[in-house]
Amino acid sequence: MNFELTEERQMLQDTLRRFLASDPADIWAQMAGLGIIGALFPEQSGGFGGAGFDLAVVFEEIGRADHDPGLIDNALLPGMLMLAAGRDVEGVISGEVKLGLAHAELAARYDLDWVETRADGDRLTGEKTVVVGAEDANLLIVSARVADGEISLWLVQPDAPGLTLNGYGIAQGGRAAEVSLNDTPAELLMDSALPAIRQAMAAATLAQMAETLGAMETAIELTRDYLGTRKQFGRPIGSFQALAHRFVDLMAELEQARSAVILAAGHLEAEPPVRDLHISAAKNLLGRAGRLVAEETIQMHGGIGMTEEYALGRFAKRITMADHRFGDTDHHLEQFIALTA
Predict the structure, then answer these.
(1) Which of 178-182, 219-223, 298-302 has the lowest mean pLDDT?
(2) What is residue 146's three-state secondary structure?
(3) In sequence order, which ranges of the chain are alpha helices (DSSP H)?
(4) What are phi and psi of 66, to 5 degrees?
């Protein structure tokens, strides 16, 4: 099987890598101008990608860089729900609109079908937690249960009456918010939305895994450079057998993680049970491999690896906290077992 990128995806990767290396200022607008956001969506919606491998290419490069443009939470995840509802995402692709999804609730943990927010007519009442990118969103998509018990999706303006956002910084960088709705007016986007939510979450999980893979690559590259330059007893410490063996173990874990992301990307458009099986298998592996990479790279650096001034500390945080997004290792192990039973 040929795992090489197509010519178009190779060009996308090269363009994005050069752009992110230039330390851009207005990163969202420039990514839209370069067509990066368009790579997240299919051609019929105005984009030019949208397949699993397109997402993997984009988010692996974002993970390699010391930037967090918020593409998962302000574009990909809510954008897929808009498409599922028959709405256009041209404003998102052009960079003019940022969307946000308010779905998670405090008691839900990782259960996508746990929604206690209620819709009474066109008014919503409930609490949503850890809504990443909510403060930047021009429009929120909110999940709520209707009278028949089904989960529906609603469009809510960020300045709507009864809506309160309490924002805060999150450990891996960026910001999230607690969203409170009290008889808040909303526009119905979609009825019976759970299958669409599951599909969008699968794509977001793949994107998060690819981003984690990219961050692992950079953490290992930083460690390789450090082992080659830091000297003890007149020799680079990377020449010491114990450290060399530990570094080889990290490279093996990285290649396993890369294979898992490739396999998940290739099954993103498969039937839901097959899709979810491969997503859960990969997310479990990425969580375990990512924890090892974060711990080992920090230990091989010593104290400097924990400082904010040195990039490794930030990458280690991103790798570690990524395990808690869209289901941790234990959750996806349980999902995998359930799907194979």
Answers:
(1) 298-302
(2) coil
(3) 7-21, 27-34, 52-64, 71, 77-84, 90-93, 194-229, 241-266, 272-301, 311-322, 329-340
(4) -90, 50
Residue 1: Cβ within 10 Å count: 4
Query: Residue 237 has what pLDDT?
Result: 66
Three-state DSSP state, 41 = coil
- In the listed set 164, 191, 218, which residue is the last one of a domain according to the structure? 191
Mean pLDDT of 63-75: 90
CA gap 156, 99 in Å, rounded: 10
Q: 314: domain CATH number?
A: 1.20.140.10
- Counting the structural domains of the chain, the total is 3
CB 85 within 8 A of CB 233: no
Does a structural domain hold residue 151?
yes
1 belongs to a structural domain: no
Query: Which range, of 4-13, 194-203, 235-244, 308-317, averages the lowest pLDDT?
Result: 235-244
283-298 burial string, b = 16+ CB within 10 Å, else e?
Answer: bbbbbbbbbbbbebbb
Neighbouring residues of 268: CB distance < 8 A, sequence distance ≥ 6: 51, 52, 55, 202, 203, 206, 275, 279
Per-residue pLDDT at 38 exceeds 70: yes
**Contact yes or no for 119/93 (Cβ under 8 A):** no
Mean pLDDT of 309-318: 87
Higher pLDDT residue, 226 or 164? 164
Residues 288 and 242 in one domain: yes
Angstrom distances, CA of residue 47 to CA of 12, 36, 138, 185, 252: 13, 9, 20, 31, 35
* Location of structure tokens 């979609």: 190
- Those residues whose C-beta lies under 8 Å from the C-beta of residue 10, and which sit 6 or more positions away, are none
Residues 161-171: what's their mean pLDDT? Answer: 92
Domain holding 103, by residue range, is 99-191
